[in-house]
Amino acid sequence: MTLIVGLGNPTKQYENTRHNVGFMLIDRLKDADFTDVSSTKFQGELYKFKNLLLLKPQTYMNLSGNSVKAVNDFYKPSRIIVIHDDLDLGFGAIKFKKGGSSGGHNGIKSIDNLIGADYERVRIGIGRGAEAKNFVLGEFSDDEKEPLNEILNYTKTALLELLKSDIVTINQKFSRKGIK
Q: Record-annotated residues binding tRNA (predicted)?
């Protein structure tokens, strides 16, 4: 079984913010074939189709690990892939890696603290603003909204390929530099 986690913050207030690109990608992956298996014990929205789980933690970013751990403990997936925003990558950059540092990302820190860092990551570049907290919690600019659609579609394609391949191959094939 594979668990794909999209990081973000719950509530309408954060829906279109940079920190929520993980949620945005989960929404693009989820289709009518997926069954909602959410439960309060999972602390998140959880969807299942065959051997694939999609998770949107509802714990807020800094406590994402609580939800990931609950799902991991219950389903015991053999593979975990986490999708998250990355300030250190230019807007539109896509990188794939396994393990490594959190890079200061609080959602990743939370997951690492509770299940370790031995999982795959899909990093979506959002660029960097003057003050990190306000930038990640801010909405994409009008100039970013149209390219964002293409970025999410591209990342969805790469992620679907990743499910059939390995992280090194996908990183070589689908990594790209930012557009600004």
A: 14, 60, 62, 106
pLDDT, residue 180, reads 63
Q: pLDDT-based confidence at 36, cuts 50/70/90? A: very high
Per-residue pLDDT reduced to its tens digit, 63-96:
999 999 999 999 999 999 999 999 999 999 999 9
The torsion angles phi and psi of 159, rounded to 5 degrees, stand at -65, -40
- List domains and CATH numbers for the chain: 2-174 (3.40.50.1470)
- Which residue of the set 18, 19, 56, 123 is catalytic? 19
Residue 129 clears pLDDT 90, i.e. is over it: no
Residue 8 CB partners (closer than 8 Å, separation 6+) = 14, 17, 19, 20, 21, 22, 23, 24, 56, 57, 61
Backbone angles phi, psi at 120, to 5 degrees: -85, 150
